[in-house]
Every structure is written in C-alpha cells, then in structure tokens.
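Example 4.3 (complexes with small molecules)
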Amino acid sequence: MKNVVLFGPPGAGKGTQAEVIKLKYDLFHISTGDVFRNNIKNNTDLGLLAKGYMNKGELVPDEITINMLSEVVEKNIHVNGFIFDGFPRTESQAITLDKLLGKFNTSISGMIALEVNDEILINRLLERGKGSGRADDSNREIIENRINEYYTKTAILKTYYQRKNCYYGVDGVGSIEEITSRIVDAMSKL
Ligand code: ADP
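Answer. The structure with adenosine-5'-diphosphate bound is encoded below.
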C-alpha cells in the first residue's frame, strides 16, 4: 500500500492537489474537514459536535477526530492506499495513525508538505470564503486562529516525520499544474 499524508497549513492547497493525486495513483482520499462538513450538512451528532470548534477556527478534539478517522480507514482498508488530507493534525493523531496502520501491516510511506507563507495563505482563504460559504473562511480573525492552531499543534509533525525519514517538502506557490508536478516528483521517492 502507498499511504501518503498531504500536509500543510490551512489554504496550502491540500484539497485541490489531493483530487489530482488520488486519480493519478488510484488512492483513497480522506479529508477530515470534508467528513466533518458532510456531517454538519446532514445534522448528525458528529456534525453538531464538530461545528462549534470548526466555526471558531479551533481543532476538533482528538478523541472525536480519531474515532471518525479510524472508522473510515477500517472500512476501506482493502484499497490501494490512502491520501490523508487534514489528518494527522496533532502528535497524538500521528501516533494513533501509525498504530492503526500497523494493525493492518502497513504504514505511512511519506508526508508531502505544501509550503506556503502566511500572507499568501490568508489571502487565499479570504478569496475562497467569498464563494464557498465556508464559515471558517469568512473573516480574518477565524483564519488567523486556524493558522495559530497550525503553528502551535500541527507544525511539530514536520519533525515527527523527518525523524522517520519520510518528510518531503514541496513549494506550494505556483500554478496548480506546477505544484502537482512537484508532488509527483516527491511521490516517485516514496
Ligand atoms: P483547512 O486545511 O483549509 O483548514 P480543513 O477542511 O482541512 O481545512 O479543516 C477545517 C476544520 O476542520 C479545521 O479548522 C478543524 O476545525 C477541523 N479539522 C479537520 N481536520 C482535523 C483534525 N485532524 N483534527 C482536528 N480538527 C480537524
């Protein structure tokens, strides 16, 4: 199995690139943000729980996120491989993911990280907010909170995967096609 963590701050372009990469490599795409948003749309208990955190730009608590993710992985374990988009976002999520995949005798092949500076991120998210209707893209304060969550809880995962020798940084600024081809380059090393 090829299991890839697509990593980067909010607005780095993970969702856009995951759509392309999943088709190219026949991988199963899990976006935790999309799963939460679908649950919110359908008014499920999980959606109700997640909504309060998401709309403030905070991370959903680990226990809730981990349970949800584990269920999706276990249900789909017979696929070619996974693209994890928006997960893990904390060290505890990363440790859980390793254990979960270990149970099925597989592991993370690599983390591909899209690197984009904060100013570009904020502008991209404000722009997306104009059309997407996403509450968390609607104002600068919420966006800054998400970026702050990223630096305080998520960014350390770079070290986590570097220690495992499977961190691949990719310049996330350029056209969609340029960035895809950088990711394809990184994928060839996994
Ligand atoms: P973005 O990468 O643009 O922030 P996502 O769709 O990945 O967008 O995530 C949106 C929100 O969903 C996050 O701000 C957070 O509240 C919640 N979320 C998504 N993934 C996780 C996760 N792994 N752990 C905790 N919260 C998460």
